[in-house]
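Illustration 12: BZIP domain-containing protein.
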Amino acid sequence: MSSEVPFFELEDAQSVLRDVLAFIETCEDANASPTSVQLSNRDRDKKKRARNYSPDYERSRREKKKAERDALRCQVDQYTTQLELLRTQKTTQRDESKWGWVHAATQEEEKRQKAEDLNHQLRGLLVQQFNVAQTFKNLLTQEAGFATLVQSVLSSCPPCSSPTKLSTFSTFSSITSHLKGLFGQLCDSSDYVFDSTSIFFDANSLVCAANLKYQDPISGPCIELLSSTPLPCNMENAASMLWEMMLAKEVFGPNSGCYTIKVGFFCCEFMNLRVAYTSCFDKVKQQTESSAEWGYSVRFNGPEASGAVDGVTLMEKFDKAGQTLIVWTSMMVESDGNPYFTSQGWVSVKKLPSNPDGEAFVRICSRLAGLHLGVRCDGDKVDVPVARKHQFMAKSRQEHVQLKILERAELQKSVL
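Figure caption equivalent — predicted structure in token form:
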């Protein structure tokens, strides 16, 4: 009896324990909210559904999520960069606002200084211009002759406004009368010729040029030869030397260049022909200390031209204060009296400004026209190819004349 009592008590205790545990579980289920139960059920449902997604869908979903993360990272980087730029600009603006007025003031001061310097220079130029204008005004008021010369040079209008039209010439007398009528105009044009040519401005330069002029106000269409030569002797000796060379036909004439055949005075020089002549002789020759006059006839036969011409040359020397001027003019006519060749020339000898007592310089200008040169004497037509050829040949001959003048001046210097 005593052994059965503990057994029953143990069984009763176990049953009570089971009842208590069951009661506790019941209470916990009762206290749980319906929402939490539903959420837990949903989570379980989602997990169940997730297990049912296809692999392609899962892969695309992961790629989409990755792209979104990358985009977010890029935006973060951009915002970070913009933030740094804003911070830098803010710092720069703070510095500029602090020192910007100093830079602006410095720039304005530099501009003002430059403007003052420029204004000072302009005032100086105005004063110089006023002084020059006043000087010219005084000179023009005092010297009427100088005023006339200045006006003629500035207006580029020579004393002979247009070349004289040529007619026919049957005798030496008619040719001579025509040339003497032109001689005064040529003498008056000497200042214009030398003052209006730029290569004559520098007395110390050794220059030579040849130009083809389609309409010269003095000579009409022509070939123009220009040269300027400084000489190592004084003006008096240079003028005497050049006058002797002109009379000896060494400046203009058959002795002025290198020729295989020499014909009458001025024939080879101006006609520029290599011909075999049948006769060449002077018919009239008059000469004084300061003037010369020749009349001559030439008959020639060659590949470039043939025929006979009569010609006259006038030349005169003028001694002025500080200058010696030699002027010449020449004309050749055919047997029918029509002009075949014309020429005019000026030779000026002056003291060299850098050494007026010991040195001089000579300027030479000549103008040639002729049918065989491509430039008609009595018209305005120019055969350009022919004229260009004779232009270059004449320039070469003029350079030879320059060399001869220099050599003769050196000889005079060595003798003295």
